[in-house]
């Protein structure tokens, strides 16, 4: 049985991942706002600190995998707090526990939206670890009517952080792969409101074409997360693995 932390475990992709891991006998500790073993608000530094304290108390002798799914899609500055800092600070804080684990692995959730327009300054502030500036830039983007760039920016920064960090000291050289999956449109509570609005659904379908099997289930994405977090994954690191029904191939055409 592996010792696994799953964030966003109360809903959608995180819940599917936690259920699948538990079904095979792993010891899963979920982190979420509510309905989880560790209840914490990952949008803010205090919540992340509290979560790390609780997880360190539980897994001080070693942690085998982290599956970081918590995220929000709302076009608000808070998305930067949850989707970027909530993931990167948690993974950074859990790395020493992973280093004491067996076949340790870490994986998170990017998005097909990294192919969409983003705010370059906001991405740089994230990568610099400057949360106050990142939140201010997100607020300013919203003020200019560019709030739709906040979520893609948070995911863009996250995926770039994964690429940088996977080969930084303490990760690859400690035998810890670090990856992300890039879902297209997934049927979860996050996207329910879009499906409820025919106009929004048409916008989304145009933005994220999925010729292979249409919208994904949360389980389809969770299976990819679980493989990346499994001991079977010995050599994949720093990758954004699209689980998107072909959307990225349609949108980016001939790019290698
Ligand atoms: P969901 O809304 O069903 O689940 C997200 C979970 O994260 C919820 O349980 C929520 O309470 C938790 N969460 C949100 N804010 C939090 C906070 N401040 N602290 C702690 N937990 C918090 O969403 P879904 O669809 O399962 O999304 C999971 C991940 O997949 C997210 O990172 C999302 O950005 C990403 N994603 C989802 C897609 C979709 O179409 N549903 C597409 C691409 C990426």
Commentary on this structure:
This protein has one domain (3-243): NAD(P)-binding Rossmann-like Domain (Rossmann fold, 3-Layer(aba) Sandwich), CATH 3.40.50.720. Helix 3 links the parallel strand 4 and strand 5 (105-109). The chain starts with a strand and ends with a helix. The longest helix has 22 residues, at 78-99. The protein has a seven-stranded parallel beta sheet with strand order 3-2-1-4-5-6-7, sandwiched between helices. With 256 residues, it is α/β, with parallel strands linked by helices. The protein has ten helices and seven strands. It has helices at residues 12-23, 45-59, 78-99, 120-127, 131-143, 150-165, 192-195, 198-207, 218-228, 247-252; strands spanning 3-7, 27-32, 38-39, 65-68, 105-109, 178-183, 240-243. The mean pLDDT is 97. The protein binds 1,4-dihydronicotinamide adenine dinucleotide. 1,4-dihydronicotinamide adenine dinucleotide is lined by residues 8, 10-14, 32-33, 41-43, 69-73, 82-83, 109, 111, 183, 185-186, 188-191, 218.
């Amino acid at each position: 049985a592996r010792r696994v932390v799953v964030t966003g475990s109360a809903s959608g992709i995180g819940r599917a991942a936690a259920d699948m891991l538990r079904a095979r006998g792993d010891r899963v500790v979920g982190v979420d706002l509510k309905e989880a073993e560790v209840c914490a608000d990952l949008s803010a530094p205090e919540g992340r600190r509290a979560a790390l304290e609780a997880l360190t108390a539980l897994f001080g002798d070693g942690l085998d995998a982290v599956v970081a799914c918590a995220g929000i899609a709302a076009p608000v500055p808070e998305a930067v707090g949850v989707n970027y800092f909530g993931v990167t600070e948690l993974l950074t804080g859990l790395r020493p526990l992973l280093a004491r684990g067996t076949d340790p692995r870490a994986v998170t959730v990017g998005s097909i939206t990294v192919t969409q327009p983003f705010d370059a300054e906001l991405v740089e502030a994230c990568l610099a670890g400057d949360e106050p500036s990142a939140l201010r830039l997100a607020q300013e983007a919203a003020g200019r009517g560019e709030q739709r760039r906040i979520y893609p920016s948070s995911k863009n920064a996250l995926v770039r952080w994964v690429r940088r960090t996977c080969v930084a000291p303490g990760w690859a050289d400690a035998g810890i792969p670090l990856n992300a999956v890039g879902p297209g449109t997934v049927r979860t509570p996050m996207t329910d409101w879009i499906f409820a609005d025919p106009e929004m659904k048409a916008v989304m379908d145009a933005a994220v074409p999925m010729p292979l099997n249409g919208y994904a289930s949360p389980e389809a994405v969770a299976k990819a997360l679980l493989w990346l977090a499994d001991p079977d994954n010995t050599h994949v690191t720093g990758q954004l693995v699209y689980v998107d029904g072909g959307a990225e191939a349609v949108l980016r055409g001939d790019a290698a």
